[in-house]
Amino acid sequence: MSGKLSGHDAHCHHCANHHELQISGLGVSYQKIRALEEVGFSASCGNTVALIGPNGAGKSTLLKAIAGLVPRTSGSILWRGVKVSQWHREFAYLPQHEEVDWSFPVTVRGLVEMGRYSQLGWWRRWRDEDEAQVTAALESLHLEDLEKRQISELSGGQQQRAFIARALAQEAHVLMLDEPFNGLDRPARENLAALLRRQAAQGRLVIASHHDLGTVRDLFDQVLILNRKALAFGTVDEVFTEPNLALAYG
Ligand code: ATP
After folding, report:
1. Position 98 pLDDT exceeds 90
2. Residues 109, 156, 178, 98: is their CA dihedral positive or negative?
3. pTM for this prediction
4. How remote is the CA of residue 120 from the centroid of ligand 1, in Å?
5. What is the largest CA-CA distance in the chain?
6. Burial annotation 28-51 (CB, 10 A radius, 16+ → b, else e)
7. Residue 10 has pLDDT above 80, yes or no
8. Ligand 1, residues at Cβ distance < 6 Å
9. Tens of pLDDT along 110-150?
10. What CATH number labels 6-19+46-70+87-222+234-249?
């Protein structure tokens, strides 16, 4: 297994059972474009799942649908057997770099603090524990020295890391990341790869769209091959095969 974590062995300290994300019959349309049709798969915590497929395959749309950011035209998305809209605190979403307004006036630390707000609720004050989580998230992305900078004053890769830190600070159970490795240099990529594996080992579910087919095997446990429809889903060993890739990439 070359040091890769298998979800089935990973100890899930968040949950006694294996919590599952169950998607069935999912359809999403933008005006006339049917971006997703009859998409179904189930993924359980403790795994890292790659979403792969050509440009326009619907990878971003699938992540947004799970995050509740685009409406479904059909199907259901359940987490632990309950509609995903009931669980928004358990889901953290990293948008694609282009979709973020980087001129928004906030420091790196301020951005990461925003990740805590969804855990706060109106009745609870900011505590030392929140501060500690923010600091830990900044450290795990090696952003301590940049914490006072405005996000507009960062490089693209640093901005990406700041947003990933925000998702981590949220301590969500499911991390949905739209091309998280985009724009990162090699050390940052390796750091993120280790970090995502740790997240899965701690019982989280990581779902990430990913373009670089050459690194899927090293980075992920499972893969969903998507091209408007779900063409294949399973472990990398079972599913990441030439014939399956040909179905999606032609
Ligand atoms: P890429 O690899 O290029 O990022 P993707 O797999 O993430 O692509 P999506 O961005 O989900 O694909 O797009 C799926 C389809 O939906 C495409 O045909 C795209 O043109 C269309 N689409 C996406 N967003 C919108 C939108 N806001 N309005 C209309 N159509 C959209």
Report:
1. no
2. positive
3. 0.90
4. 33
5. 54
6. bbeeeeebbbebebebbbbbbbbb
7. no
8. 30, 33, 35, 53, 55-61, 209
9. 999 999 887 766 677 888 999 999 999 999 999 999 999 99
10. 3.40.50.300
